[in-house]
Design goal:
94 residues, mainly alpha
């Protein structure tokens, strides 16, 4: 859960920085998200990649960790939508 909040805060802080520079809300949201977007994407993919080896473990432990790894990877990939899509939209509207 910490990574979701951290990414969203970083994106929001960058958008606020652009608004403080005097840019309109929509332009600040687009430019701020564009600057941080690749970093958030790379952090998300590298975090998801950490759990790939757990999917290929053998034996009883492999069966247990397979479900765990898939669940965590799906949650990590879904959480990428919060800082990359909803945060800039909320910053531009409010």
């Amino acid at each position: 859960m910490g990574f979701v909040v951290d990414d969203a805060i970083v994106v929001l802080e960058n958008i606020v920085r652009h608004m403080e520079m005097g840019k309109p809300r929509m332009e600040a949201a687009l430019e701020g998200a564009r600057e941080i977007g690749f970093t958030v994407l790379s952090m998300t993919l590298s975090l998801a990649a950490v759990f790939i080896p757990l999917m290929f473990m053998g034996g009883i432990m492999g069966r247990l960790f397979h479900e765990f790894a898939v669940t965590i990877m799906v949650a990590i990939l879904i959480r990428a939508s919060s800082p990359s899509a909803s945060r800039p939209c909320c910053a531009a509207v409010s």
